[in-house]
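DM from R.C. (forwarded with permission)

"hey, sorry to bug you on a friday — could you get me a structure for this? deadline for the figure draft is monday and I only need the backbone to look sensible"
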Amino acid sequence: MAVETGASRAHTHKVTAGAPARRPGQPRAPEAGQVPFAQKLILYQWLLSLFGVQRFDELALPLRSPDLEGQDESNVHHFHHVLTGRFPHRPDLPDDLLLQYDQNIARHTARLNEARLRRGLAPVRWKYFQYLALLFTEIYLDRYFTDPGGLRSALNRQIAAYNEGRAPADRLPPFDEAAEPGPQLNKLAFWMATGSGKTLLMHMNILQYWHYLQRHGRRHELSRVILLTPNEGLSRQHLREFAASGIAAELVDPDRVTLFRRAPVQVLDIHKLREEPGEKTIAVDAFEGHNLVLVDEGHRGASSGDQGAWMQYRNRLCEQGFSFEYSATFGQAVKDSRPLTELYARSILFDYSYRHFYADGFGKEYLIFNLDSATERTQLDLYLTAGLLDFFQKLRLFRDRRAEFSPFHIENPLWVYVGSSVTRGLSTREATDIVEILLFLERYLTDARGSAARIRRLLEEGLVAADGRNLCKGRFGYLDETGLSPEALYGETLALLFHAPGSGALRLENLRSAAGEIALRVGENPPFGLIHVGDPARLCRLCAEHGLDVSEALFTGSLFHAINTPDSSIHVLIGARKFTEGWNSWRVSTMGLLNVGRSEGAQVIQLFGRGVRLRGYGDSLKRSAHAPLPEGVAVPRHLDILETLSIFGIRADYMAQFREFLAEEGLDRGEGGLRPDRPEPPPAGSVAMGLAARADAFRRFGPRLVLAGPGDAPNRFREQLRQRPVEFNLYPQIRAMKSRGLAGGEAEERPHVAHLGPEHLAFLSRDRLYFELERYKAERGYQNLMVAPPAIQAVLDDPSWYRLLIPAEELEFHNFGNVRLWEEIALCLLKTYMDRFYAFHRTVWESAAPDGTARNL
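My reply, with the result:
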């Protein structure tokens, strides 16, 4: 038996390149399949390259400080200031474009937070990796809608660079330059660890996609937004989360699939999609048209390959539209499938899989108890008692130190045993595993002398495996400190864990009014445990055949739905299939695995990810050793015990498989500890904090400003405009707004320079320009700036301060589509003018201070 902790060194892979045959001194040729999947993500690598970096850590390093979360007084994210300050070499991402993306993110975030605050929920403050995921989405969608051909060419160059020197098995195919670019680029995937906020990112992605459709005059093309989930329970959970974000959503009713929808988002269990309609199913062709398709748990259906029925349904739904997929387990889903590897290597936009999540200090530590088969055969009860004692130590510690641990948001511990089957019924293997656990609990409850003896042995001798390792060495430090005898500890386990101070026999109650639930109790005491399976009647019959006391309870509420409430009496949850997908709980503290994931790595990592969830100090989601603690706040003693997920497996061959999956996530275990080679970040937000303080000072203490046209502005400002006029190149945007069949091949050798004249301005909506500019002013936090409609007219009437590079025919009046373009140009010009006007006056005010800094700072 081996014990592996969450503090061990990450396994690394080395890749060498060379020709198939080599001379002495020549590099060795790469072997087939040598490149790990995480190193094949060419879309993700291309986005990193736009910032001048090759690795995620290079970009993440200056952003990791929690002090950078949130926005400054101008509603600009602190992350934006750091990105523009620390990564200056961005020829394809100028500062003003990054600011535009940042303001889009800020506007969408404000919409979500407005709804959340109305419901009494905490506002969203993005973690650095969430902000980067949203920023990468902005970059991609902008290029996808503006110049899909150029985007495809850029990605093909990235693929060519990746393929150079690779073995054939590791190369990736380029996108087809002869085919339409849009359908090749309409799938994005997010490889995000469980607990990293995929649901909120999904809500933002909807708003981002809507924005770019609207911006390019294509909102009318969208037929519907469809969210595909793996089960109906998760569908209903998404409805609640959409409501919290203020996004209307509804479940798809197979009897009422029409073109007329009551809500913009339709949520559908993917099991209900079929080729032909049925009593409880829907034909995939019922959703024809331009759909935005969201796929939660995107790995589902991938196990059958790219030609599997579910994958084909998903592809057909978004054939004319776009899709976003989300999963923590893409690495396992693509294993042994070259088509899926090629698909997701070219569509994963962002990689924040578990190895990054853990290395950043998020989630619990973990302790894996790997039982060898020889020890399992001879000492199973001792091993299971070790698991029970591990959980009881956490339960007792939580009871004794609850107030002290409260600032760290530690929840009442829960012991979860998860079965193997993910079907709607109950497999024979799963039923046998559950009965085995129940029979152990029965023996523990009724054999007081034997149970106390096993507790004594574990505390005094430990549990020595066949390889000589001691499973329990140093694992029960808090129980040792109590000074209680093994007999007294046994009595406390009865009272605290089982709610049975007087002992008694195990009873099972099939809760007929709560589907799939079986309550576990001792005698007539409150239930201490819950079984949640697909076929409770069958399991109850099997338990009765093994001599367990089984009965029925007709009128009771659901114990499962109340398991996260503070007054829940449930300490043990068994066979919870819902635990694998969609069920959220901060309580999971100890996990027993019953044949889970023998042949499905995705399920393994998903279970693991749900078990390591942690709220952390200040809702940081981090372990106390990594959380930002205020001065004077110390980490309580023994808190690490409750910040550790203990994992016990029943089948030794399964645990070997589990270790293999952890290794694929970059978490292979050695003796040295997982200590990523990562330099310390710079002092918290030095660039961003200074800019924010200066902007705040001007806003609070600076003069009241009135926007003025160039003719009425100060002379120095007019001179700046003359020396550095604003320039807008509309050629790429114009190509994107035309039909895809006509895009490309239209660039002129010498761009046409023009301005908006009176004949163009006459068609513009002054009200829309004014209200959009007011909204933009509020977003930027220009509280001390007043804007009047005459000033807007004055800015647009004077063309001396800007140049438009635009095809001449786009300024001719052919149809009202051109008017929409002119209005968009005018709005961009006004926003840019306002920014420069405000920045000029702030600089003048700051320079007037005696020490060269802002006054009153």
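R.C.: lifesaver. The chain has a mean pLDDT of 81.
me: no worries. Residues 373-405 form the longest helix (33 residues).
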